[in-house]
RNA sequence: GUGGCCGUAGCUCAGUGGUAGAGCAGGAGGUUGUGACCCUCCCGUCCCGGAUUCGAUUUCCGGCGGUCACCCCA
């Protein structure tokens, strides 16, 4: 019997789940301390809400759920009549529906936290799964760039508190990209293809991008202008104000970019670099303004990203400006794991071993006293070798996050006799176990 | 979804057309200085299915899973 999880999905060992719980706690604490409020939405949405939501390529990757109840008529039916629900592929579309449904009960400017699994039927790879957790924060009702500034600073703070070192936040603006395409003379129907080519700049280089653009046969003028744009397209901490002026970029867009760039002076950003990167595109079709991605040098993919999607909420009947930032939980967990964080939260620990059920009550009393002191306590029989138990305890402590290096003691208890094994070599006096 | 590589013990990996090995880990026991050392024994449908073959873990095909590159993205 095959026992591995379904393709692209994962089981988590206790030690892995503990790391995830710790991460979740840090993220929630960071977000709530900045005034964001947690909400929950269902994993399933009506299919017609997922399709046509502006999810771009992701709409092709929806896991569809068959109709249930009365017998399904399979023969001759297509998938659209057989399925009416789908697993969400992100948390933004559900949030838009949520806002439309609950807006009267929500604050005028709503700061939402949404943490949960999403599903995409992609071909799995490292750092890329078919079920993965996203940690979204969104601000609904704030039209100005203040919302982006808040999302970016808070998300970067969360990443820093998780132990992500030297991240880089690359930002761009959909309105700038539209403006570039317009200035270059790219017909609107060729826009998406040009953007896709542009997105590959870091992989295939300027020549590669130009080769792809040439294939689109946009004509001499547009190609030439795009080549000119590529010269200006190096990611940089300085905004190319001259180029902005040259293409006649709207002053309001320039002002927003200046505001975002100014965040590099903020304390909570710590060592995070903020760079303007004209090649940040992002696939979601629903973005309308600033867009951004958070990355680290060690990984070949981003650990977070987001943008403004002012038009999407209107699709659900209640128009409102909105933008969001999503942290990639699995990718950050992968990063932390590769940085050596293999373990659980390491609070001090007493492991009590008893050889007879008669000793359970007294062991329980000791465990209670330990717990009252903030010490984890577990009670177990002696069916396993002491050696194996100790080895496993030390293994779990290895690379622990939260309270790394906390002491561990194994206490063998038999009637009135206590034998204390100082597993970590630094455990304190445990006389309080008896009183 | 397309293409490449890969899939042998819990882990890291050898190996072979005649049903399999090492190191570490685990289990049972012995010794003991009982969290050390040493000793004995145990632990594998060689991913699944089909084909070729007297015979396949080893070749071929298909599937499943992983990984890398596309694509896209958290």
Kindly give the count of domains: 2
Strand order of the largest sheet: 1-5-6-11-10-9-7-8
CATH topology tier name of the largest domain: BirA Bifunctional Protein, domain 2
CATH superfamily of the largest domain: Bira Bifunctional Protein, Domain 2
CATH architecture of the largest domain: 2-Layer Sandwich
Query: Strand portion, in percent?
Result: 15-25%
Structural class, from helix and strand content?
A: alpha/beta
Gist?
The protein is of the alpha/beta class. It has helices at residues 14-33, 47-50, 79-82, 92-102, 146-161, 174-184, 191-199, 201-215, 220-231, 241-246, 251-261, 329-338, 360-372, 386-397; strands spanning 37-39, 44-46, 64-66, 83-87, 110-119, 131-140, 168-173, 273-276, 290-295, 304-308, 322-328, 349-354, 376-380, 408-414, 417-422.
Characteristics:
single chain, alpha/beta, Rossmann fold, 4-stranded mixed β-sheet, 435 residues, 35% helix, RNA-binding, BirA Bifunctional Protein, domain 2, elongated, 2 domains
Notes on the structure:
The structure is a single chain. Strands 1-5-6-11-10-9-7-8 form an eight-stranded mixed beta sheet, with helices on both faces. Strands 13-12-14-15 form a four-stranded mixed beta sheet, sandwiched between helices. Strands 2-4-3 form a three-stranded antiparallel beta sheet. The radius of gyration is 27 Å and the shape is elongated. It has two domains: 14-338, Bira Bifunctional Protein, Domain 2 (BirA Bifunctional Protein, domain 2, 2-Layer Sandwich); 349-433, 3-Layer(aba) Sandwich (Rossmann fold), CATH 3.40.50. With 435 residues, it is an alpha/beta fold. It is built from 14 helices and 15 strands. Helices cover 35% and strands 20% of the residues. Strand 9 and strand 10 form a beta hairpin. The chain binds one RNA strand of 74 nucleotides through strand 6, strand 11, helix 12 and helix 14.
């Amino acid at each position: 019997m095959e026992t591995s999880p379904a393709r692209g999905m994962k089981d988590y060992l206790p030690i892995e789940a503990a790391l995830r719980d710790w991460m979740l706690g840090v993220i929630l604490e960071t977000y709530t301390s900045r005034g964001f409020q947690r909400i929950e939405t269902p994993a399933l949405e009506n299919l017609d809400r997922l399709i046509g939501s502006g999810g771009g390529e992701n709409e092709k990757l929806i896991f569809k759920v068959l109709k249930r109840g009365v017998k399904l008529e399979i023969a001759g039916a297509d998938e659209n009549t057989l399925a009416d629900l789908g697993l969400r592929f992100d948390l933004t579309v559900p949030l838009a529906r949520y806002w439309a449904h609950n807006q009267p009960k929500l604050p005028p400017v709503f700061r939402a936290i949404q943490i949960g699994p999403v599903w995409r039927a992609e071909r799995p790879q490292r750092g890329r799964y078919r079920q993965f957790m996203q940690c979204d924060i969104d601000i609904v009702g704030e039209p100005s760039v203040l919302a982006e500034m808040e999302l970016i600073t808070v998300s970067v703070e969360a990443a820093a508190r998780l132990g992500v070192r030297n991240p880089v936040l690359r930002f761009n603006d959909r309105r700038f990209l539209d403006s570039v395409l317009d200035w270059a003379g790219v017909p609107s129907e060729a826009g998406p293809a040009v953007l896709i080519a542009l997105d590959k700049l870091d992989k295939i280089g300027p020549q590669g991008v130009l080769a792809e653009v040439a294939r689109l046969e946009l004509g001499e003028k547009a190609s030439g202008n795009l080549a000119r744009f590529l010269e200006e397209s190096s990611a940089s901490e300085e905004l190319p104000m001259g180029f902005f002026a040259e293409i006649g970029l709207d002053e309001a867009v320039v002002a927003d970019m200046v505001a975002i760039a100014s965040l590099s002076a903020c304390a909570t950003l710590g060592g995070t670099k903020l760079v303007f990167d004209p090649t940040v595109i992002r696939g979601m079709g629903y973005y309308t303004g600033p867009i951004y991605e958070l990355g680290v040098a060690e990984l070949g993919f981003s650990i977070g990203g987001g943008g403004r999607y002012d038009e999407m909420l209107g699709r659900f009947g209640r128009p409102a400006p909105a933008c969001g930032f999503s942290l990639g939980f699995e990718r950050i967990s992968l990063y932390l794991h590769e940085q050596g964080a293999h373990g659980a939260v390491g609070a001090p620990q007493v492991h009590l071993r008893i050889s007879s059920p008669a000793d359970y009550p007294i062991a329980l009393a000791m465990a209670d006293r330990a717990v009252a002191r903030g010490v984890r306590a577990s009670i177990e029989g002696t069916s396993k070798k002491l050696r194996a138990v100790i080895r496993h305890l030390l293994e779990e402590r290895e690379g622990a996050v939260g309270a790394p290096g906390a002491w561990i003691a194994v206490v063998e208890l038999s009637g009135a006799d206590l034998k204390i094994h100082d597993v970590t070599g630094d455990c304190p006096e445990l006389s309080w176990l008896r009183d």
